[in-house]
Specification:
alpha/beta; 6-stranded mixed β-sheet; two-stranded antiparallel sheet; 8 helices; 8 strands; elongated
């Protein structure tokens, strides 16, 4: 990650940020995929994108790790912009979960994204950022759209060559805004008291 980090420091005003999903850091340890990921990120930096993470990613990287891996994770992310998990982000993540449910994403056919994915997704929505991930299903359509799908080629310990798709995904702010407004409108319909019908004047004989 050193090449990408140095480029990040020389590009202080990016036109847009790319949020690196936690799984990207795990693929940096895979033979072959590491150099491809760094090349993709360096190319993004040349196009005036900035690199970032959600601070929730630090929890995912450090949780149950060794001290050696903890130091490695902190060093790998230190030069990136950190989007803090604020109260606003948590509320937005909860709203996304409600909208996913309204769209039927909590059924048996499709496993809904977990809390961490919703937090990263909410950060992307709030900052209009692109997400770089291996797990495209964690950021479901039509709430998010795939804008690029590079294939990572890496070698397994047994020598087998594996082709893994990666994804650059952006939030569909128009669709998300529409779904959010629909929820508010539906709530207002349920909670707004109905106006009483005007009483009819008795007829005079």
């Amino acid at each position: 990650m050193s090449q990408a980090s140095n480029s990040e420091q020389s590009n202080p005003e990016p036109q847009r940020y790319i949020i690196l999903d936690s799984c990207i850091f795990k693929y940096l340890d895979k033979l072959g995929a590491d150099s491809q990921i760094i090349a993709l990120l360096d190319d993004a930096l040349k196009k005036q994108y900035g690199l970032s993470i959600s601070t929730f990613t630090l929890l995912e990287l450090i949780n149950t790790s060794t001290i050696e891996n903890e130091v490695k994770s902190v060093n790998a992310t230190s030069a990136l912009k950190h989007f803090e998990v604020t109260q606003e982000v948590l509320i937005a993540a909860g709203h996304l979960g409600c909208m996913y449910k309204d769209d039927g994403m909590d059924g048996n056919k499709q496993k809904p994204p977990d809390v961490g994915d919703k937090i990263i997704a909410a950060s992307a929505v709030m900052h209009d950022a692109v997400i770089f991930t291996i797990n495209g299903r964690d950021f479901p359509q039509p709430f998010f759209n795939i804008i690029a799908k590079p294939i990572l080629i890496h070698t397994q310990p047994d020598g087998r060559e594996v082709h893994t798709p990666s994804y650059f995904i952006e939030p569909d702010l128009d669709y998300i805004g529409k779904k959010h407004n629909e929820r508010i409108s539906e709530h207002e319909k349920k909670t707004t008291p109905k106006k009483p019908k005007p009483k009819k004047e008795p007829r005079k004989e």
